[in-house]
Design goal:
It is built from 5 helices and 6 strands; from the N terminus they run βαβααβαβββα. By secondary structure, it is α/β, with parallel strands linked by helices. The chain has one domain. β1, α1 and β2 (about 25-30) form a beta-alpha-beta unit. The termini are far apart.
C-alpha cells in the first residue's frame, strides 16, 4: 500500500484522514513554502528539497509508492507533477481536498497520473 504525502498546505480533517487511509498506510505532512503564482520555480525547487530531505517521502517518490495531496491551485500542481516526473521517471498519484457541505474538507478519489500516461503513451503514434 502507498503512503500519502500531504503538501496541500492544510491540516487534513478527520474525515479526509479516514478516507485517505483507505488508499495509503501512512500520511506524512510536509510543511510547504509560500508560492508566488507569477514565479513558481523557486517554490517547486524549495519543495523538492524538502521532499528529498524526508527519508520516507523520497523513498516513496523513487519507487512510485505514494499519493500526493496537492494544493488546490492547478498551476502549482502542474509544476509539481513535472518536477516529480523529472526526478523519479514516473508521474505521481494525486488527490486534493474538497470542501464538503458541512464546511469541512475531505479528499477526492486519488488519480494515478502514471497509469493514465502509460495508457496513452502510443495514442498519437498509432
Amino acid at each position: 500500500m502507498k503512503i500519502a504525502i500531504n503538501i496541500s498546505g492544510h491540516k487534513l480533517s478527520d474525515i479526509a484522514t479516514k478516507h485517505l487511509k483507505e488508499y495509503a498506510k501512512n500520511i506524512i505532512d510536509i510543511p510547504v513554502p509560500n508560492a508566488d503564482l507569477d514565479d513558481l520555480e523557486p517554490y517547486v525547487a524549495e519543495l523538492m528539497e524538502i521532499l528529498k530531505k524526508s527519508k520516507h517521502a523520497s523513498k516513496a517518490i523513487l519507487t512510485n509508492e505514494y499519493i500526493l495531496v496537492i494544493p488546490g491551485h492547478a498551476a502549482i500542481a502542474y509544476h509539481i507533477a513535472a518536477a516529480l516526473h523529472g526526478g523519479s521517471g514516473s508521474f505521481p498519484t494525486f488527490t486534493f481536498t474538497v470542501r464538503t457541505d458541512d464546511g469541512t474538507y475531505d479528499i477526492a478519489t486519488p488519480i494515478d497520473l502514471n497509469t493514465i500516461r502509460l495508457k496513452y503513451r502510443d495514442f498519437f503514434r498509432a
